[in-house]
Write a structure and sequence with these properties.
The complex is a heterodimer of chains A (246) and B (607). By secondary structure, chain A is α/β, with parallel strands linked by helices. Chain A has twelve helices and five strands. Helices cover 56% and strands 11% of the residues of chain A. In chain A, helix 4 links the parallel strand 4 and strand 5. In chain A, helix 6 crosses helix 7 and helix 7 packs across helix 8. Chain B is of the alpha+beta class and 607 residues long. In chain B, strands 3-2-1-6-5-4 form a six-stranded antiparallel sheet. In chain B, a hairpin with a 5-residue loop joins strand 7 and strand 8 (223-228). The chains are: A alpha/beta (246), B alpha+beta (607).
Chain lengths: 246, 607
């Protein structure tokens, strides 16, 4: 477990971030949270820390100043701020921070950022993580269940959030442990759903496309044809005539 | 427009040219008429003079010669003897043959002479150029001459009258002008009969061809002869048979005789130049008439030339006016184009300088500078306005964006804690955060179409929740356009319009199609919906509002202004709508004005 401290002058946010993210699951342990940068510096004097996640604007010392003081130590620093100012970003880049997140921070952004941070730390410490097969099965099962319900809006980021890992990692798990890619799985679910909806004459084809998550009916038709080898219209007419679709 | 300018210009130029031309024509015309009058006068007088001279000459030659011979006593005696006896002695026959020679030479010299008689008072016989030179008074075919002579008063030296001679009862009478020349030394007379027809023919040679009439009056003011040359009198002679005579007669022998000596007179409704001369020798008055028409006829060529020149003038002016109107109109149109382009806020190119026209060059530069200034001011104003607007919106909120972002963050955490990651509220907070972040970023910063569409999808997801899934949206977008750079919030106002004004009240689905196509030189954008649409009145009002700079804070109007500012007037919004059918809002952007995204940074993955 890598040691992480979080600094933000708002306690509620500190609380939310430290509690609501599955830090342990992605390989981090929140060693402490601070509302003041100076307190964090004090703490770091006698505690080994791997990652610092800090807000920029704070009353006593701002996040950039803190980062500057931490430059000698080999630390990963993640900035999260509600400032999208170029000035701050540039300074942060010059201080070679790991990432710069904008509030409100989305779950998936945070996950993918820390996935990368972990990757860098792992390679630095030459660590190989090994997990049991059942771990992956559980993740795939959870993700699939999510997709079955939210096929319209679902995307890799959302699914990753649901299972508490980063998008890239989830994609890899699908490829390596399910044998079918994430996107393909989602498409299958959508096509099955579309097939069902086509049997209901109340829906128009473009409505079905929309409801199963396509922003363009042509793309839907193309995907449908690729999946069923017939167009949605043929599929619907074939069913009406009492024939089994392929 | 062109037509109006042309007519105005033509009028002005025509008047400008025609007035001096007319003045010149008038002056020249007056001179010509005057000259013609003078020449008519001159010619009339000359011909009258020659005319008179010819009569005088013949009378003088014949009368005077014979008269002077009778001064010789032996000649008179011989003459009397010749007339008394039928037989002649040597001397007498010499005289007789002399007279015969005279007579013959007169007949040869003056072809118009009909006959000459020599009569001695009291004799039964007289000499004549006809029938054997000696004839009896009593049995001669011409009889009235003697009575005429005898009735003449003693003091009448020369008398003229008009008679007719009939050679025999079955031949036509010949009109003659008879001159009685009373002998000075003897009691007798020389009668000269002039064949009027022949004489008139002879006179024609002296007269102004076609235009002159001559009248001859004897000592008793009787009209003894008329001669008219040509067509202007052929009919006139019939029409005013003796009208000239009637008009002239009162002047003769009166105190007003001067008036016919050299004057223009009105006869039978027409003007004539009248001149006259009194021959003392023959005691006759010769009057010449010349119609005013001669001046007109002689000036006809001149008038035709004038008319032709005028017509030519008119045509030339017409062509000139047309040409100059065309060229100046092109000039005006060019400037109208430039000005309206400037008004629309398009980039103005410096007009091509025509080096031929220095004024045009100066004008071009002035206009160009003026327009460029204007445009720069406009742009400055626009930027200022935008700045004010963004400051305004921040002020209106009176809220630090920090506050919003932190609040959203905390709400999100709370929802996640209470409802898990799977809840609709968590999802909506996530999308709302994206929308607010995107909207509060510097509006001048450009984004790729991919980013803009990605943001739009977050926005659409919130709208979908708001309208319980009754809004169906889909995209038809050429993949090649996704990396092109556009300004933020380009698509959202149009889609928002569809949602706010298009949603059906009867529960039907609203279908919104967002189309972006690459059309070669242009990118075409369209948002099409099957919503409630607008009636004509609303549509017209919206279209008017689009170009009204005073209307603010309406998404579409703001969008229209930004499109025109960034991409030119032609990229403004086009709105079509029909009540209960739907609305199409579209615009085009020239690809030349778009910058290709340099970074092409990876975006959130697509569906």
């Amino acid at each position: 477990m890598y040691q992480l401290i979080i600094i933000d002058d708002e306690e509620k946010i500190l609380e939310g971030i430290s509690e609501l993210f599955p830090w342990n699951q992605i390989g981090f342990e929140v060693a402490g949270t601070f509302t003041q940068a100076s307190a964090a510096l004090d703490y770091m004097e006698d505690h080994p820390i791997d990652v610092v996640m800090t807000d920029i604007q704070m009353p006593d010392m701002d996040g950039l100043e803190l980062t500057r003081r931490l430059q000698e130590r080999e630390l990963e620093v993640v900035i999260f701020s509600s400032y999208s100012d170029y000035k701050y970003m540039r300074e942060a880049l010059q201080l070679e921070v790991s990432d710069y997140l904008l509030k409100p921070v989305s779950y998936s952004e945070l996950l993918s950022t820390f996935e990368k941070v972990k990757g860098r730390l792992d390679s630095k410490h030459a660590v190989e993580t090994e997990r049991e097969g059942s771990y992956y099965e559980k993740i795939i099962e959870q993700s699939d269940a999510y997709l079955m319900e939210h096929y319209k809006t679902a995307c890799l980021n959302d699914a990753a959030e649901q299972v508490g890992i980063s998008a890239g990692y989830l994609s890899r798990i699908y490829r390596e442990h399910k044998g079918i890619g994430f996107q393909e799985t989602l498409t299958r679910i959508r096509m099955e759903k579309a097939g069902e909806m086509l049997m209901n004459p109340a829906y128009k084809s473009y409505e079905i496309a929309f409801y199963v998550g396509y922003d363009n009916p042509k793309n839907f038709t193309r995907a449908f044809k690729a999946y069923y080898q017939v167009t949605p219209r043929e599929y619907r007419n074939g069913m009406r005539a009492g024939e089994e679709p392929k | 427009m062109l037509r109006k300018y042309f007519i105005q210009r033509y009028k002005a130029q025509f008047l400008g040219m025609i007035i001096p031309t007319l003045v010149i024509f008038l002056v020249v015309g007056m001179y010509v008429v005057n000259f013609q009058r003078q020449s008519v006068r001159e010619e009339s007088r000359n011909s009258l003079k020659r005319f008179e001279e010819s009569v005088d000459a013949s009378v003088y030659n014949i009368g005077n010669q014979i008269d002077s011979l009778t001064a010789n006593a032996s000649f008179s005696l011989s003459l009397k003897k010749i007339l008394d006896h039928s037989t002649m002695k040597i001397g007498e026959s010499t005289v007789f043959s002399m007279i015969k020679n005279f007579f013959r030479s007169y007949e040869i010299s003056y072809s118009y002479i009909h006959s000459i008689y020599l009569y001695i008072g009291g004799k039964d016989r007289f000499l004549t150029t006809t029938t054997g030179y000696v004839a009896n008074v009593s049995d001669y075919f011409d009889v009235d001459w003697l009575q005429q002579y005898l009735s003449l008063p003693e003091e009448e030296q020369i008398f003229t009258c008009r008679r007719e001679i009939r050679k025999n009862s079955f031949s036509d009478p010949t009109p003659v002008l008879t001159l009685y020349y009373r002998l000075t030394y003897l009691d007798g007379v020389i009668v000269i009969n002039i064949d009027e027809n022949e004489y008139v023919k002879n006179l024609m040679n002296f007269m102004i061809p076609d235009y002159q009439m001559a009248l001859m009056y004897n000592s008793r003011d009787e009209l003894v002869g008329t001669a008219a040359s040509g067509r202007s009198f052929e009919n006139a002679q019939m029409a005013w048979s003796d009208a000239p005579d009637d008009v002239i007669r009162p002047y003769i022998r009166s105190e007003d005789q001067e008036k016919i000596a050299d004057h223009w007179l009105r006869i039978g409704g027409k003007y004539y130049y009248v001149c006259s001369s009194h021959s003392k020798y023959t005691n006759m008055l010769h009057v010449s008439l010349c119609p005013l028409r001669i001046i007109l006829d002689r000036s006809a060529v001149y008038i035709w030339i004038a008319v032709l020149i005028l017509a030519l003038d008119a045509v030339v002016i017409l062509l000139m006016a047309y040409r100059s109107t065309r060229s100046s109109f092109r000039f005006i149109e060019q400037y109208i184009d430039i000005f309206s382009a400037a008004e629309r806020g398009e980039q103005i190119e410096q007009p091509a300088a025509s080096t031929e026209d220095e004024y045009g060059l100066i004008l071009n530069n002035i206009i160009y500078m003026y327009l460029r200034n204007n445009r720069m001011q406009m742009e400055l104003q626009d930027k200022e306005n935008q700045k004010i607007r963004s400051e305004m919106s921040a002020l209106q909120m009176q809220i630090n964006p920090h506050f919003i972002f932190n609040t959203l963050q905390i709400m999100d955490f709370d929802v996640m804690r209470e409802l898990g990651h799977d809840s609709l509220v968590h999802r909506m907070i996530g999308q709302l955060s994206k929308v607010v972040k995107y909207a509060l970023t510097d509006p001048m910063e450009m984004v790729t179409l991919r980013t803009e569409i990605d943001y739009l999808k977050s926005y659409l997801e919130i709208q979908e929740v708001r309208f319980s899934g009754r809004g169906i949206t889909y995209f038809e977008i050429d993949p090649s356009v996704l990396d092109l750079q556009v300004f933020r919030l380009m698509l959202q106002p149009m889609v928002e319009n569809s949602f706010e004004h298009g949603m059906h009240s009867d529960g039907r689905n609203l279908v919104i199609k967002i189309k972006i196509f690459d059309r070669g030189d242009d990118l075409s954008f369209a948002v099409v919906d099957n919503g409630r649409g607008m009636d004509r009145e609303h549509l017209l009002k919206l279209r008017t509002n689009l170009s009204d700079p005073s209307v603010r804070n309406i998404g579409l109007i703001n969008l229209n202004r930004r499109l025109q500012l960034y991409y030119g007037e032609k990229s403004g919004l086009m709105i079509c709508s029909r009540k209960d059918v739907g609305t199409v809002i579209s615009f085009r952007i020239p690809k030349a004005k778009l910058m290709l995204s340099k970074s092409g940074r990876s975006e959130n993955e697509e569906n």
